[in-house]
């Protein structure tokens, strides 16, 4: 089974020494929310530069076997699931992305299921922060800023890396239920949303981190490497012929 480590992102095949799962059932009679049990799963990362462990706990339905003993056999339905470590599905982000943006993103991921309303609010603020930081666009509302950014792209005046696809993806959040209905209001307004709606915003943030900040950094690194090579070659040309051959 393929698995991507939530700490380092390394995709790997889960092997037995790095995988462990345990179950046990609570033998409690006459309760409305039973019978149930717990299933704990631990997966260790095989990347030697990471070696972190993901731990999940599930509350699952339990069943009484033929001997009258409660157990958690394969196929029992999951009632709820909690990721113990890491605390959320947030992907590790590089240090060159502004800390305030990463903090809003991490917190939105952490509380997505517990409070989708608050998660969506943080995600909207993170998106607005990216538009202001990366594109230098500031408006009265997020709606105004998205509109201004879209015009910049159409006029070919947007910063390099801001594609029409990324702007259209931002613009599409106008169609997401209450999120879109409140686009022209205060960015910190807490509005009722569903967990999947908050997840759409979180995935949009991840895409913009990749397409804007990370790709810009990679481009800068590539150009810096080319410039270094050119500088070294130019310096060699200035040396006397005998020294340049040494």
Short characterization:
Helices cover 43% and strands 17% of the residues. It has 246 residues and is of the alpha+beta class. The protein has two domains: 1-85, no CATH class; 87-240.
Helix-strand blueprint:
Elements lengths: L1 E3 L6 E3 L5 E7 L10 E9 L8 E9 L1 E2 L5 E2 L6 E8 L13 H12 L5 H20 L6 H13 L9 H8 L5 H5 L13 H44 L2 H4 L2
Antiparallel strand pairs: 1-2, 3-4, 4-5, 5-8, 6-7
Helix pairs in contact: 1-2, 2-3, 2-6, 3-4
Characteristic terms for this protein:
246 residues, alpha+beta, 2 domains, 4-stranded antiparallel β-sheet, flat
The total strand number stands at 8
Main sheet: strand order: 3-4-5-8
Compute the number of helices. 7
Structural class: alpha+beta
Low-confidence stretches: none
User: How many separate domains make up the residues?
Assistant: 2
Shape: flat
The residue fraction in helices comes out at 40-55%
Our measurement of the CA-to-CA distance between the termini, rounded to an integer number of angstroms, reads 54 Å
């Amino acid at each position: 089974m393929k698995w991507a480590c939530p700490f380092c992102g390394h995709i790997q095949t889960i092997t037995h020494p790095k995988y462990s799962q345990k179950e046990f059932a609570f033998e409690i009679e006459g309760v409305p929310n039973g019978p149930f049990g717990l299933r704990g799963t631990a997966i260790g990362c095989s990347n030697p530069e990471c070696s972190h462990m993901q731990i999940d706990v599930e509350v699952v339905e339990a069943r009484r076997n033929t001997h009258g003993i409660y157990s958690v056999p394969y196929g029992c339905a999951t009632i709820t699931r909690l990721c113990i470590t890491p605390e959320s599905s947030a992907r590790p982000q590089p240090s060159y992305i502004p800390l305030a943006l990463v903090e809003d993103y991490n917190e939105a991921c952490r509380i997505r299921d517990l409070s989708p309303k608050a998660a969506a609010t943080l995600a909207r603020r993170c998106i607005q922060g990216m538009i202001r930081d990366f594109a230098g666009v500031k408006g009265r509302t997020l709606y105004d800023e998205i509109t201004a950014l879209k015009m910049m792209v159409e006029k070919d005046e947007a910063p390099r890396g801001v594609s029409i696809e990324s702007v259209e993806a931002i613009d599409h959040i106008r169609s997401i239920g209450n999120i879109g209905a409140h686009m022209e209001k205060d960015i910190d307004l807490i509005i009722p949303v569903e967990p999947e709606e908050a997840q759409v915003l979180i995935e949009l943030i991840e895409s913009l981190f990749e397409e804007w900040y990370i790709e810009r950094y990679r481009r800068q690194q590539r150009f810096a490497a080319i410039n270094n090579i050119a500088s070294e070659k130019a310096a060699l040309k200035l040396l006397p012929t005998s020294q340049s051959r040494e």
